[in-house]
């Protein structure tokens, strides 16, 4: 059985071409930013580089406090940072903002993050 995936009437989703263009721009942004550290994408960046060599995202204090309370491991912090950078790249930001970090936390927890990014 073949499934048909079409946009529902009244849907506000982006056309595939627009999404593809945004992804290509985000990939290029990552490539340029990460070239000096020998990586091409956020997924490839070692945690130590995320925490020390890239611009500090807004809201990272919130993540560090959560880690200090034992609610987030260092590995979890790195995953949230990678995701926040990706969200920022897709939104055309030069670095993650607080809304990007909150959205990354929500996605990591499996929560609906609609409206979190500002």
What this model shows, in words?
By secondary structure, this protein is mainly alpha-helical. It is 53% helix and 0% strand. It contains 5 helices and no strands. The chain has helices at 16-34, 47-52, 60-68, 74-90, 98-109.
Spatial gap, N to C terminus: 40 Å
Class from secondary-structure proportions: mainly alpha
Topology, number of strands: 0
- What would you call the shape? globular
Uncertain residue segments: 1-10
Helicity range: 40-55%
Count up the helices: 5
Q: Could you state the order of secondary-structure elements as H and E?
A: HHHHH
Radius of gyration: 16 Å
Mean pLDDT over the residues: 85
What characteristics describe this protein?
single chain; mainly alpha; disordered N terminus; 118 residues; 0% strand
Question: What is the strand and helix layout of this fold?
Answer:
Blueprint: H1 16-34, H2 47-52, H3 60-68, H4 74-90, H5 98-109
Helix pairs in contact: 4-5
Summarize the model shown:
The chain is an all-alpha fold and 118 residues long. Helix content is 53%, strand content 0%.
């Amino acid at each position: 059985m073949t499934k048909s995936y079409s946009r529902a009437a009244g849907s506000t989703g982006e056309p595939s071409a627009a999404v593809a263009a945004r992804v290509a721009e985000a990939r290029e942004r990552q490539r340029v930013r990460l070239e000096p550290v020998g990586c091409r994408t956020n997924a490839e960046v070692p945690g130590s580089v995320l925490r020390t060599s890239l611009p500090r995202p807004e809201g990272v204090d919130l993540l560090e406090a959560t880690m200090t309370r034992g609610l987030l491991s260092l590995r979890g912090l790195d995953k949230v940072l990678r995701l926040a950078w990706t969200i920022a790249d897709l939104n055309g930001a030069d670095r993650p903002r607080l809304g990007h970090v909150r959205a990354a936390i929500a996605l990591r927890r499996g929560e609906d993050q609609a409206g979190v990014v500002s």
